[in-house]
Design goal:
- The chain is an alpha+beta fold.
- Helices cover 23% and strands 35% of the residues.
- The protein has 6 helices and 16 strands.
- The chain has a 4-stranded antiparallel sheet with strand order 2-1-4-3. A 4-stranded antiparallel sheet has the order 5-6-7-8. Strands 9-10-11 form a 3-stranded antiparallel sheet.
Length: 214
């Protein structure tokens, strides 16, 4: 079985993929010792190991080798249209047809967020989620998106949110200049459930309060 190597200091960063047998051979441990290592969240080469889920992963129809494709994701009150592209860009197009790439804020190596003024109001979009939904398929609430390799559409990978939620909950988050020691603390002090806040950070739900990893 294969495992993602998640950076212990930032588990949204995928350092690579390893095979369980190779890890056991390298460390000289048994299968039971390997699974004990996983349960205790012990690190291997500075990384936490997480199983690669492949059974339900959909086959990708679009890759970065194709011509850039555009998918409409919304429109502003003034008629500006916003598109996500197969090159993982968010582009605005005005009424005259002029295109402008919107700068995404890099929060971690695998989270790029952009603020868009839709008709319904301002939203902070997770570029990875929008690209996956547009060109691969729908994302369940219990799914998360990570990088695996270069910054290309075919290198987006789905992992189960429940598998990383406990790990990510240990990370500091902030709203504006206020820093909280964990998602749980931030959620409690802002009267929002921890799961709801986590989904806002990941871009699954609209991030109306601008919460992000510190």
């Amino acid at each position: 079985m294969q495992y993602y190597m998640l950076d212990k200091n930032d588990i949204s960063v995928v350092r690579g993929i390893v095979n369980a047998k190779d890890v056991m051979k390298e460390l000289g441990i048994t299968n039971a010792q390997f699974h004990k290592m996983l349960r205790n969240e012990e690190t291997h080469k500075g990384c936490i190991l997480l199983p690669v889920e492949t059974d339900n992963e959909e086959r990708r129809k679009v890759t970065s080798e194709d011509d850039e494709q555009f998918q409409l994701i919304g429109e502003s009150k003034t008629g500006i249209r916003y598109y996500i592209t197969s090159y993982l860009r968010v582009v605005s197009v005005d009424l005259k047809g002029n295109q402008k790439e919107m700068k995404a804020k890099k929060e971690t190596e695998s989270i790029y967020r952009v603020a868009v003024n839709f008709k319904e109001g301002r939203r902070y979009l997770n570029v990875l989620f929008e690209a996956y939904k547009a060109f691969v398929g729908e994302i369940e609430k219990n799914d998360s998106i990570v990088w695996d390799g270069e910054m290309k559409i075919e290198n987006l990978r789905v992992i189960k949110l429940a598998q990383t939620q406990g790990l990510r909950n240990k990370k500091k988050v902030r709203i504006g200049n206020t820093v909280y020691s964990s998602i749980a603390e931030c959620a409690r002090k802002n009267f929002i459930s921890a799961s709801h806040m986590y989904q806002m950070i990941e871009g699954i739900r609209p991030n109306s309060i601008g919460v992000e990893y510190a």
